[in-house]
Amino acid sequence: MFKESIAIALRALVANKLRSILTMLGIIIGVGAVISMVSIGMGVKEKVQNSIASLGSNMLIVTPGAASSQGVRSASGSSTTLTLEDAEYIKKTIQGIDYVSPSVSKSYQIIAGNQNWTTTVYGVTPEYMAIKSLTVGSGSFVSQPDINSRNRVAVLGATVAENLFGEMNPTGQNVRINNAPYLVVGVLDSKGQSSMGQDQDDIVLVPLTTAQERLVGITYLNSISIQVTKMEGMDQAQEQITSLLRQRHKINGTKEDDFTVRNLTSIMAMMAETTGTITLLLGSIGAISLLVGGIGIMNIMMVSVTERTREIGIRKALGATYRDIMLQFLIESVVIGVLGGIFGIFLGILSAFAISTFGGMNTVISAVSILVPFGFSIAVGLFFGIYPARKAALLDPIEALRYE
Amino acid sequence: MGITLKEITKCYKIGEETVAALAGVSLEIENGEFVAIMGPSGSGKSTMMNILGCLDRPTSGSYLLEEQEVATLTDDELAKTRNKRIGFVFQNFNLLSRVSAWENVALPLVYAGIAEKERLNRAAAILESVGLASRKQHMPNELSGGQRQRVAIARALINEPSIIMADEPTGNLDSRSSVDIMRIFGDLNEQGKTIILVTHEPDIAQSAKRVITVRDGLIISDEVKEQYHV
Fold first, then answer.
1. How many whole angstroms separate alpha carbon B179 and alpha carbon B190?
2. Are residues A176 and A313 in the same domain?
3. Nearest residue in chain A measured CA to CA from B83
4. How does pLDDT run across A155-173, given as a tens digit for each residue?
5. Known EC number(s) (chain B) (predicted)?
6. Is B96 in contact with A401 (Cβ distance < 8 A)?
7. pLDDT tens-digit map of B9-65
8. Which of B45, B50, B98, B168 is the best substitution to test chain A (most A C-beta atoms within 10 A)?
9. Fewest C-beta atoms under 10 Å: which of A213, B18, B58, B120?
10. Which A residues in the span 291-310 are in contact with B, Cβ-Cβ below 8 Å?
11. CB pair distance less than 8 Å for B111 and A324
12. ipTM for the complex?
């Protein structure tokens, strides 16, 4: 009986081709809208998640605050109170942290042979590699002996290496930074652009002590990055670091901190949550058009039932039961939903592709973002088909046969 | 066996008033009879036909069809009864316009749960027996009135019902086709089918072996022809 009902439904849909297609269009657009809208939202979410991953997980960043002398406050980061001892103290006393990576940075012109390139030079410790998830392509990274003896060694980012040495391997070569020669000990693997569009390969790394004493000539730090072992320990670590630094910098009572501890993961987590909400919102807009498409199905099915009253009467006179007629019309509306859903998937994928190609937005399509609207379109066909199908199935055969 | 009606009434509410379309009809029809029900319009003959055809339930009374009480069946049980025991032939043919003669004939078997292959084989055989073997693939609108009515008769016969109900079967036909159709009914009756014919044309009623006249919801005459033997 089920097979026959499908055949009857398909035949009825084919008999009214234009009408069926127009009805289906509501579902096609609805499903297509949900898929493409959600793909945009998920694209944004993916970007945010990538940037979280590129930051390294569970990161706290301590930066100096604004220096103030006699009431005049300078730019943020100008305070000179954050020192290497602070970093070492944090590492020693705070529980539940993996790495502490102090760093200084300043922009310099780098010269190799007849090439030059201006970039940011970072003074770092070996922990920097782990905390930024860097990998060395050739050669080695800044080592503890380099730190201890303030060696003039440098590790180049991929962009810097390419600009100064081209195809050649820079390891073992010399570069001049601020007119002093540095031995290139390694080249980093490319990390590409950050989420903010910054080239993460445009850096040069030197030992922290070398940078502080031989290059920049300072005793303080520009930042301390701290990786916390567990996500749950982030807030606690942030509090402990704040009170430790206040104590060490002798900041009492209500006086403002001369440093800032930022919890990047929590900022990113919040951004991810926001993008989740955006996805939901975009999806709901699509879902509304799907719902409107469903009402279109109901409308057409009502017309179809009225138009075919006589057919229903004939079928009933010949022995069709309530269930037979119900099934016939219900399958018709479900078939509209299913076919509309299938074409809608194509439309959705196509428009998501078009948005990323011509609109320049990142779009992501997943199995869930296809299957959920598809399931929804079937459910819509079913739900909005019930009332018309029931109306058909409840028709009195005598009245229906008499219908002109 | 056959049909037994006992004190059947059928009332309709029209506004405040209750109108009795049938006011207590008792009737017995044996298997193999050829009965014409006659009466002017509004006499209650259509109501009687609907109840006899299990399309409708009486307000009161008892209707035994093949020794089974059908006056109290549910809608779905009535549908099953119609499917198995009764074949309908209507004045305006009532064929599905979008499907071929062949599939129109096979339609009752769909609701009897018969597989497609057998349905089509049986439909082909029945169409042949009414002389339409060459018209199987034709759509109803490609057939003449007489041919359409023969398709309808084939459809009525396909599930081998014991009773054929014909409601003004010649009402939309020219006189030559009418004679053809009535001959088919005569032949079917010879083969043992019970034929119940509703008509207001005395000529057509004359082909039957028993003529029942209805007026104002009551049977006013029930006349069996002399040459009639059960």
1. 16
2. no
3. A319
4. 999 999 999 988 888 898 8
5. 3.6.3.28
6. no
7. 999 888 888 888 999 999 999 999 999 999 888 888 889 999 999 999 999 999 999
8. B98
9. B18
10. 310
11. yes
12. 0.93
